[in-house]
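Q: My collaborator sent me two sequences in one message, no labels, and asked for predicted structures for both. Can we handle them in order? The first one she listed is below.
A: Yes, handling them in the order given. First sequence, followed by its structure tokens:
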Amino acid sequence: MPKYRHLYEHMVTYSEKANLMSASEMDDLFDPAHYAETLADFGSARTLPAWCYTDASFFQREMERCFHSNWHFIGHESEIAEPGQYIAVDLVIGPVIVIRGKDGEIRSFANTCRHRGARLLENGQGHCATIVCPYHAWTYEHSGNLRGAPAMEEMPEFCKEDWGLIPFRVEQYGGFMWVTSNGELPALTDYLGDFTSRFEGHDFGAMRVVRRETYDIACNWKVLAENALEEYHTGVVHSNSLGQQHSVPVETLGRWCALFIASETSLSILPGETSVLPHIATLNSPTDDGTYFTMLYPNTQFACSQDSMWCVTFHPVSPEQTQVRVAFCFPSGTVALDSFEAESQKYFHRWITGIEEDNAIGPVQQQGLRSPASVPGPYGPKEFTVHEMNKWTVRCVTDQ
């Protein structure tokens, strides 16, 4: 990289010269001074340095500080309504199982056999009478207790009571399930702060996940998460679909941020389309007349409109690879309507169109961030929520 620096040193400020250095050239990548401009007031702040989206050391620090110590979104409890139903998914904390037991309780475990570590259940949703390791047939109850281990009775010191599955904490808010491996983390509702009261009228407990989609995208997870927190791009990236939108910031307490787009009609369908699906009956505030685009730190967005919602998780795979997981939700009463199957196609069309357009622009930004000339720029006038998320990230990785 140094061989390029002379081409544009005269074009940049002192602080920008520091950002031209690669992460490997820096004495301390996590010196707070490198991020002072990101933490500045919104009007004068600069975006994160490019290495925050490309460097392996920064990525590892994020995983340790921003992810391992926080709650992780799984899905809705109605997806595992019956005993033996489960969701298996890879998280930053490792592969995880969330399963409903015969006693009706929902539990979570590491998706790894206590014998030699094989994955127990394939990712996705399913049903099992017991959890059976595909390698040596160690068998576990829904409670996590080891039920049987072939031939292990021949080992005199083996006691199956000692070898149950490793449990994770699992908690719910409004039927939505979250897990963590951090035993010291505050309860989920405390973690979410005023998110719970702000969305009480959306009646999350009545929501049903009716469809899921997964995408593998060649860019850093923050590229996609930040894109989901601003409408500055909508008139360009979504010019032929959603069109230009107009947002206002939302004041929040807790580990989340949000913007709000006012609209008398649902943003869950494309402009010009109409739907006969009802609004959520428990919404009664004028501020509910629109759509909230939230980010529940570290990496899950709940987009809540008047008649539906969609939940997006930006799962980090590597510094430049992300898996986007989307769950589309409607109230149970809406799902039961005779018109639902036909009307819901308008919603899926809008959601998939918007998501795929966002997914396409992500790698374009990632390619530019690899450039030696990429230095932090000013935030756009409607990127206030991106700034909030960037500040949260910096504070996590630098202990500020």
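Q: And the one she listed second?
A: Here it is, processed independently of the first:
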Amino acid sequence: MVDFVDFLADRESTAQKTELAALIAEYASENAGTEFDLDEEFEKAGIDHLRTIDGVPQ
């Protein structure tokens, strides 16, 4: 699964990544605290996963 995600990430240009990051940040800002906000457990799981990329806790 990680190889597939890496493959998709490598396909994106820097401009596309920057645009996507801006859109995600805008969505997060507009929806914070609403029914469309990520629940705390899901958010924590995502953060925990990012901290252990390549199997190395940070």
